[in-house]
């Protein structure tokens, strides 16, 4: 039996059924709050008796419809990487399980089923936590950004974040493997590998494949990179030899495709993914162990650190918000690469 007025943690609520959904309407604490909750209870009973009570029609829409409304409304304001993450979380895991379910009936059991599916698919805890954050955006928007709201409360607000490891192991790509794959790669992939190696960017659609020739500062030998992951810009300085290769590549691209704006392109068009080309290049190179294109970023950071790059400056140049990742993940790799030589100091024995 539902108590019409309920006190929880010192605050008073009017509790009632809206269709099949139990609603806890808050009124604060103190004698006045209790009186207001009781008055609200009488109002609801009177309306139901007169047949004037109605259920919020928004509560009856299913989860699939809610996500469509959310993406149509908010989607254009999101970064490309965020949209991609939301699409993956929805299409691969959430919609197949709860797409047709009315949003008023969604509960924690639904999230546990979705999470179990992610675990069975082999997703890491870090990725699952990220996907949950993407899906939570839909519920938060449904609660806070609409009048009347689609939902009164987040159905998964009691979800406990999966524990992530502070350290994760990086099996470093060797230079020999890098050159072997590069030699077997299609021209656009080989060039993308060069750009990833010298810039250290995240080699996906958000950074590497979105880099434009207008981002290159030819006078100061640097490139400006926008990181949607951190919503920040950072500058990466480039060596003269690579700047020369950049100039040659731009001239070659614009000779056949003068309007192509992208540093990495294929037949004058933006490259959407390098996964297939990478897979075929690895096969032709005879490499069977798991190596990702992202490992080139690890290679850049590790060698830069081993050769004396300041940690704070390195973190800034590759788009990390702090040095924790550099210290925890790459420091031990860099130590293995360091040669037992004297540190570089100004020479006081010069003529």
Characterize the structure shown.
The chain is mainly α and 351 residues long. The chain folds into 3 domains: 5-55, no CATH class; 59-144, Tyrosine recombinase, N-terminal domain (DNA polymerase, domain 1, Orthogonal Bundle); 175-337, hpI Integrase, Chain A. Helix content is 48%, strand content 10%. The strands form 3 sheets. Strands 1-2-3 form a 3-stranded antiparallel β-sheet, covered by helices on one side. It has a 3-stranded antiparallel β-sheet with strand order 4-5-6, with no helix packed on it.
Architecture blueprint of SSEs:
Layout: E1 5-8, E2 11-18, E3 21-26, H1 31-50, H2 63-74, H3 80-98, H4 108-120, H5 125-144, H6 175-184, H7 187-199, E4 216-217, E5 222-227, E6 232-237, H8 240-256, E7 265-266, E8 269-270, H9 275-285, H10 295-306, H11 311-317, H12 324-337
Antiparallel strand pairs: 1-2, 2-3, 4-5, 5-6, 7-8
Helix pairs in contact: 2-3, 3-4, 3-5, 6-9, 7-10, 10-12
């Amino acid at each position: 039996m539902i108590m019409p007025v309920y006190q929880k943690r010192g605050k008073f609520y009017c509790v009632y059924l809206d269709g099949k959904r139990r609603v806890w309407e808050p009124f604060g604490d103190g004698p006045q709050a209790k009186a207001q909750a009781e008055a609200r209870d009488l109002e609801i009973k009177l309306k139901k008796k007169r047949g004037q009570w109605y259920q919020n029609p928004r509560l009856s829409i299913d989860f699939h419809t809610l996500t469509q409304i959310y993406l149509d409304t908010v989607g254009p304001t999101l970064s490309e990487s965020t949209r991609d993450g939301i699409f993956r979380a929805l299409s691969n895991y959430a919609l197949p399980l709860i797409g047709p379910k009315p949003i008023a009936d969604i509960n924690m059991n639904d999230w546990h089923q979705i999470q179990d599916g992610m675990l069975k698919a082999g997703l890491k805890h870090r990725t699952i936590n990220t996907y949950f954050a993407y899906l939570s955006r839909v519920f938060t928007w449904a609660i806070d950004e609409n009048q009347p709201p689609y939902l009164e409360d987040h159905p998964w607000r009691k979800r406990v974040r999966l524990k992530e490891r502070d350290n994760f192991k990086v099996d470093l790509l060797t230079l020999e493997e890098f050159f072997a794959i590069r030699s077997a790669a299609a021209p656009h992939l080989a060039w993308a590998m060069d750009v990833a190696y010298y810039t250290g960017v995240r080699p996906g659609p958000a950074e590497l494949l979105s880099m434009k020739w207008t981002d290159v500062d030819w006078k100061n030998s640097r490139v400006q990179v926008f990181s949607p992951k951190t919503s920040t810009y950072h500058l990466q300085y480039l060596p003269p030899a690579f700047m020369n290769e950049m100039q040659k590549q731009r001239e070659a691209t614009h000779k056949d495709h003068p309007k192509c704006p992208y540093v990495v392109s294929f037949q004058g068009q933006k490259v959407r993914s390098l996964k297939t080309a990478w897979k075929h290049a690895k096969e032709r190179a005879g490499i069977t162990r798991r190596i990702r294109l992202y490992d080139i970023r690890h290679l850049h950071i590790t060698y830069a650190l081993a050769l004396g790059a300041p940690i704070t400056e390195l973190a800034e140049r590759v788009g990390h918000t702090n040095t924790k990742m550099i210290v925890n993940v790459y420091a031990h790799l860099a130590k293995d690469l360091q040669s037992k030589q004297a540190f570089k100091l100004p020479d006081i024995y010069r003529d």
